[in-house]
Amino acid sequence: MTRLHIQLLGGFRLDCDYTDVHVVPGARRLLALLALRDSPVPRQVAATLLWPDTTTRRAGACLRSSLWRLVKPSTPLVVVNEDTLTLGPHVEVDFRRACAFAAAPGASPEAVGMLKADLLPGWWQPWVQAERDWWRQARLRALEALSDRFRSCGDHHHAHQAALAAVHADPLRESAHRTLVELHLADGNPAQAVRQYQTYRTQLRAELGMEPSRHIHELVRPLLR
């Protein structure tokens, strides 16, 4: 059986038996769409989403062409029924594994690496943007939960990594900055805690004209005095 793996995090890639396979743009979008969906996608829906700026007839023709031009390994990439399309049952998808981490984040360094990656960066189709918006919020919550779990286990190194990944994903997310401030204080680094607070305060003022909340300010108030 051919090992098939689709990467969506950090950019699209199709591997067949650990070898990168070139995929034409139409087929690439089709595989990405099916990889993002857990249930079968009606052919007409897929054609409309993938080729929204053309007629229904032309979109259907483009879909048939993309299916024909797909690489055809011994393990099927796409299961084609009369009215629906589904990703092959043995195709691995990194995004689905990352979603499992996000749903139940365990204290695993691998989870941090997957959760900090963007979903299909550079793709601006509406069906991608909707998934990207969901993924952004899900991974932020998961990264903060991971940071707390690492910290409770005494692993401050990976706790810092998870919190930093959340800050990089959303530089104005106060809860992530607060986690980093708490970690610096727990590590006995008050100066670094103040710098983290001041960085967040400067960004918040510059972009939104707001001040940090009392909760994060109280952490460093004794040090500021």
Describe the structure.
It contains 10 helices and 7 strands. α6 packs parallel to α8 (174-186). A hairpin with a 5-residue loop joins β1 (4-7) and β2. It has 2 domains: 4-93, Winged helix-like DNA-binding domain superfamily/Winged helix DNA-binding domain (Arc Repressor Mutant, subunit A, Orthogonal Bundle), CATH 1.10.10.10; 107-224, Tetratricopeptide repeat domain (Serine Threonine Protein Phosphatase 5, Tetratricopeptide repeat). The strands form 2 sheets. Strands 3-2-1-7 form a 4-stranded mixed sheet. It has helices at 25-36, 43-50, 56-69, 94-103, 109-115, 126-152, 156-169, 174-186, 190-208, 214-224; strands spanning 4-7, 13-16, 19-21, 41-42, 78-80, 84-87, 91-93. By secondary structure, it is α+β, with helices and mostly antiparallel strands.
Indicate the topology.
Elements: E1 4-7, E2 13-16, E3 19-21, H1 25-36, E4 41-42, H2 43-50, H3 56-69, E5 78-80, E6 84-87, E7 91-93, H4 94-103, H5 109-115, H6 126-152, H7 156-169, H8 174-186, H9 190-208, H10 214-224
Helix pairs in contact: 2-3, 4-6, 6-7, 6-8, 7-8, 8-9, 8-10, 9-10
Protein name: Bacterial transcriptional activator domain-containing protein
Pfam families: BTAD (PF03704)
Domain Bacterial transcriptional activator: 93-224
Q: Features of this protein?
A:
Arc Repressor Mutant, subunit A, 225 residues, 2 domains, alpha+beta, 4-stranded mixed β-sheet, Serine Threonine Protein Phosphatase 5, Tetratricopeptide repeat, 10% strand, 3-stranded antiparallel β-sheet
